[in-house]
Amino acid sequence: MTDFNAERKEVSISEFFDKNKQMLGFDSPQKALFMTVKEAVDNSLDACADKAILPTITVKITELGKEKYRVEVEDNGPGIPRTEVENSFGKMLYGSRFFQERQTRGQQGLGISAAILYAQKTTGFPTEIVTKVQGELTAFHFVLDIDIRKNSPHSISVTPEIWDVEHGLKITITLKGRYVSGKQSVEEYIRETALANPHSAFHLILPDKSLEIERSINTPPEIPVSVKPHPHGVEMGELISIFRENEEKTIESVLEEKFSRVTKQTAKLLVEKSGLKNKKISQMTRDNFEDLMNAIKETEFMEPRKDCLSPIGAEGLFKSAMNSFKDYHPAYFSQPVIRGPFVFSGHPFLVEAIAIYGGDLPKEEPIKVLRFANRVPLLYQSGSCAITKAISSIAWNQYGFSQPVKDQIPVGPLIIAVHIASTKIPFTSEAKEAVATVPEIMDSLDILLKGVARQIKTMKKKEAHKNQVEEKFSLIEQILPQISMKSSKILNLEPPDIKPIISKVMGVVAFREMDGELFAENFTEKVQNFKVVLKGEEQFVDKVKNLKPFQKVKLNFSKEIISSSEIYVDLPEPVLLGAYSLPKVFDNE
Amino acid sequence: MNEKLEMIVKQIYKDMREGNIPKVELKSRNRDNIIFDPRTSVWKYGNSTVKRYASKASSAKGILKMLYIIDFVDEMEAGLKTSTLREMYYISEGWNLGKFESQDESDLMVEDLEVMTNYLREEMRLRPEESGASVIGNLTLTELNRKGEKKRINCRDDVGDAGYTIPYNVEKEKIDLVSSDVDFVLAIETGGMFDRLVENRFDEKMRSLLVHTKGQPSRSTKRLLNRLNKELGLPIVVFTDGDPWSFRIFASIAYGAIKTAHISDILATPTSEFIGITASDILRYDLPTDKLSDKDVEALRSELEDPRFNIPFWKGEIETMLKLGKKAEQQALAKYGLDFVTDSYLPEKLKENGII
Fold this sequence. Notes:
The complex is a heterodimer.
Chain A: H1 3-19, H2 21-24, H3 29-50, E1 56-65, E2 68-75, H4 85-90, H5 111-123, E3 127-132, E4 139-147, E5 152-161, E6 168-176, H6 186-196, E7 201-205, E8 210-213, H7 236-244, H8 251-258, H9 264-273, H10 286-298, H11 314-325, E9 332-333, E10 337-344, E11 347-357, E12 368-373, E13 376-378, H12 386-392, E14 414-422, H13 439-491, H14 499-505, E15 509-514, E16 517-522, E17 528-535, E18 539-547, E19 552-554, H15 559-564, E20 566-569, E21 576-577, E22 580-581, H16 584-588
Parallel strand pairs in A: 1-7, 12-14, 15-21, 20-22
Antiparallel strand pairs in A: 1-2, 2-6, 3-4, 3-6, 4-5, 7-8, 9-11, 10-11, 11-14, 12-13, 15-16, 16-19, 17-18, 17-20
Chain B: H1 3-17, E1 23-27, E2 34-37, E3 42-45, E4 49-53, H2 57-79, E5 83-84, H3 85-91, H4 103-117, E6 126-127, E7 134-136, E8 139-144, E9 150-154, E10 164-165, E11 175-180, E12 184-188, H5 191-199, H6 202-205, E13 208-212, H7 219-232, E14 236-239, H8 244-255, H9 264-267, E15 273-276, H10 279-284, E16 290-291, H11 294-305, H12 312-324, E17 326-327, H13 340-352
Parallel strand pairs in B: 5-6, 12-13, 12-14, 14-15
Antiparallel strand pairs in B: 1-4, 2-3, 7-10, 7-13, 8-9, 8-11, 16-17
Helix pairs in contact in B: 11-12
């Protein structure tokens, strides 16, 4: 390489970075700080996922001066062997294209090397990395920067260091940034990351606060399987590269061996269709590849394998939602709903969601939508995202939420978290901040979200019942007794007995939840016999015989069933409180 | 204990003793039940009543709150204390389920009690926050001060230029109107104009009693005007800005307001005269004006429907103002100098209206 070339290269990489700041996510000091944390944390989570380690990640941000921050991210992952550190962290435009389809979060292209380069350009500080792998006695402390001319990492120093852990990695980056709290902040990112990765724990030390996020579940997700690309999912450039790397083989055998769902017979057919019989790969022109691509498009294949996806899962979603939103004291968590795997353009995907309702969530504001793609929270570009659009297009008034503007986010005390997992997330742009409105994904999101919304509707009805019940009981247990006390005190007389008044104001059989258990109490003047049906996903029945006036009985249902079902009783509506009258249809069942 | 308040408690107690759902009964405060009585020319309650039963948590809480107020009034009576409406609202913090959600709620309930018992809130030892308006002129009265002494005050000779301040309670037990040597009472809307008339010694020159209403007059100001008219036989003349809102100040002095329809008899003075600024004055004196806002126009239009303005004089003035599209302030009279209002405008208008 001549000097001239080296200079050119320097210019081009610097230029490339400057021109693509936005694409890389480093277009403002605020976003640069955010991206740096994001890249480091995503790397840590990926490293742990590969080895099924339960991640414990510490993120520390220190303000060093005006717009100058130090970001430290430490994990308990496998660490990186000494010989691979430079390549893993330093090389710009260094991609590992193995042509395997697999669900990974690290899709940000230049990833951590972009963060290192940005730091170097803005503050001149090199990046420091401490890594220790299993079985080694010491850790190694790298001070490293990027030689822009050579597009290669450059270690300024490597020193052994004592680090009292079995394995792990710590990266320290000093950059020009701006720290903000609230929306689109580091804190929000970490909180949402914890929600989508219930198996991970975080310690967060920020300039203005510290917080601990505990693990919600103690099982790491299964390591996603790698599969060969499905012919329908492959793009032109990718197709060409795969063939170029296997020039010694025949076209047929590459098709059969390097793609999934391509049989010997289909491979033969494809070659015939595209007129490439007896052609050597080394002789293939761009036109030849285009013919092949067209042949692939016209051919039907078995759907791609779907077992390569890693959903957050019902248990994980539920527990991490409970953990994440406990401060709002929500009235209700929906059961997580998972749909798929389905396929779009040769790529398998699945969608899953959970809703959190009520409590201290704001009633007059638009609902909060949390978007995730392959367990990575999406904080930007919400308006153009498939998830937001799918939510907006639902007629929310059917589910008891107002939608001030049609096709906009509804208003109410609700959070919906939606995760899309796929071997290839169809992002709207390279910035990877919003998911494109692919028809197959939109359809599955619609059904998914309606499933969640139905649950919320049931819950809201239950809540209305509960309020009615609470109000009536507060009347007879508190207000009336106080009226009796107060009036008799003013008049200096004996307090009257209020039992007859209670049966007058009630006149119902009341169903009331206390500590998760369900009780029936007879406030009518007659002995009552009735059947109680709890209807949720399934249906459960209990019968009560001979319940005398003012008598109370505990019904035989588990707390779990009670919390997720509506209550129906075979008594007429006017004598019921906190339950629906059982329609005749149910009766026959 | 106050007899009528005690009756309310006895009714509640009796209901419960007999095993019935306790209730309170009061005049319906629905707009439909507030009617303009043409015989007395004031707003009054009609005959429909509502019963609030303690069968719902909300109305039961209402009854409980009422009991707490009654008990509180009783306590104040025993300790010879009074409280502002706001103080009572804060005191209700300690009333368990009888705690008020807002001061509007507690103020409204005090009005409910007034409607039910025909007692004034002042008689229940509850008073509003704002201080009363001022009076200057040759009126002699006695006020029972906090030492329990009857203090004799002449509202011209014993006070400074700010005048005598009207206390929140102007009922007989507190204020006695002894004598006056004036021909009429002039109620003035704005402080600027009140001070102008004081400085120009209008009270002496025109043998008048000047009352500053401080905008929309408080209950005690209206009550005092009512007593000055009834007991001393003084005509009440109202002098305000020339805009729809000031017309309403006059209407509320003369005919009462919806909110206080239960006590219109003692607050309203139907014989009050409006002297200006009228729409005709704007033309006649060529006064500096402001454009009517949309809200002003809306207010004027609704006044055309208001029974209180249903006489030819008001119809004519309101329509003229709408046609002009203009309004004017009292102080616009200063266009012709500081003495114009006292030397020319008021004497002319008073003469035309037959006051002098």
